[in-house]
Backbone:
């Protein structure tokens, strides 16, 4: 697995706040809210603006109740469910996110297809996990700051993904419900120790979703950065195009 790149070393951090990004981000917004893209839909840029789209499959892993479905909704700009319900099978969500590469200044649209599968469904049906692993590019391992057992289960979760058909897979850890500090069951010292021993960065999410992009930008930029970096390392070049759009939907 490629080493995790330093934050902000591959893509321009906070690019969504820069003037030159407005034309691109306007294509994923509608009345200041995120557009909901179906499997066959994509942002439409003017003919004079050439933007490549790179496709990635992301699996969201975690115990029941940690917020997998809520995270997918948050990243896509959808309404977060008020009540928890167990995902009965596989749910997919499409997220488009434009980034600007730091070295070349090239702009890319990242098409992230998020796969969410209920823990009980994975246990009951043996064919679901192989389907989730097939051609996967990244895994988000979730734990809840309000559930110590979900944090302690991280090593068990990650062990299931040590071998994925010989593919290099980006692995990121996300702590959910970070805003519920009054009910926090995972100490910051525990998180730091995990990061030091595992070498995996821990991202945090929680709280109400605003109409802006700042809530999701850190996580989506980090994910895009790691995906592009790993592709470049795998290809042995900084101009890797294996995921460039060819008209097929992954």
Residues:
């Amino acid at each position: 697995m490629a080493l995790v790149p330093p934050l902000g070393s591959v893509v321009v951090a906070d690019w969504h706040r820069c003037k030159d990004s407005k034309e691109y981000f306007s294509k994923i917004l509608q009345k200041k809210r995120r557009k909901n893209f179906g499997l066959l839909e994509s942002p439409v840029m003017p003919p004079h603006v050439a933007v490549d789209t790179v496709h990635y499959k992301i699996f969201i892993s975690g115990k029941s109740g940690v917020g997998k479905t809520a995270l997918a909704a948050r990243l896509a700009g959808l309404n977060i469910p008020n009540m928890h319900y167990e995902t009965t099978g596989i749910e997919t969500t499409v997220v488009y996110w434009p980034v600007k590469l730091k070295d070349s200044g090239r702009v890319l649209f990242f098409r992230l297809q998020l796969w969410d599968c209920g823990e009980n469904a994975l246990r009951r049906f043996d064919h679901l996990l192989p389907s989730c692993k097939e051609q996967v590019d990244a895994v988000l391992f979730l734990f809840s700051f309000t559930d110590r057992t979900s944090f302690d289960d991280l090593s068990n979760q990650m062990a299931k993904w040590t071998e994925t058909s010989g593919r290099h897979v980006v692995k990121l850890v996300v702590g959910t419900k970070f805003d519920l500090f009054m009910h926090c069951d995972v100490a910051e010292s525990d998180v730091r120790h995990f990061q030091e021993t595992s070498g995996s960065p821990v991202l945090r999410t929680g709280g109400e979703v605003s109409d802006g992009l700042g809530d999701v930008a850190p996580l989506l930029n980090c994910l895009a950065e790691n995906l592009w970096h790993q592709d470049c390392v795998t290809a042995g070049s900084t101009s890797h195009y294996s995921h460039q759009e060819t008209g097929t939907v992954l």
